[in-house]
Amino acid sequence: MNSLREYVETKAREAKAGARAIGVADTEAKNRMLFKMADLIMSKSDMLMSENAKDIANASGLSDAMKDSLNLKSSTGKKTFTALSDAMIDRLTLNPKRIEEMATGLREVAAMTDPVGEIIKMWKRPNKMMVGKMRGPIGSICIIYESRPNVTADAAGLCIKAGNSVILRGGSEAVNSNAAIVSILKAAVKGEGLHDGVVTFIENTDRAAIMELLKLDTLVDLVIPRGGEGLIRAVVENSTIPVLKHYKGVCHVFVDRDCDLDMASDICFNAKVQRPGTCNAMETMLVDAPVAERFLPKMTERLMAAGVEILGCTRSVKLCPLLKPVKDDDYHNEYLALKMNVRIVNGIDEAIEHINTYSSSHTESIVTKDHARAMRFLKDVDSAAVMVNTSTRLNDGGQFGLGAEIGISTDKLHARGPMGLEDLTCCKFIVLGDGQLRV
Question: Where are the beta strands (DSSP E) in 164-234?
Answer without folding.
Answer: 165-169, 199-201, 222-226
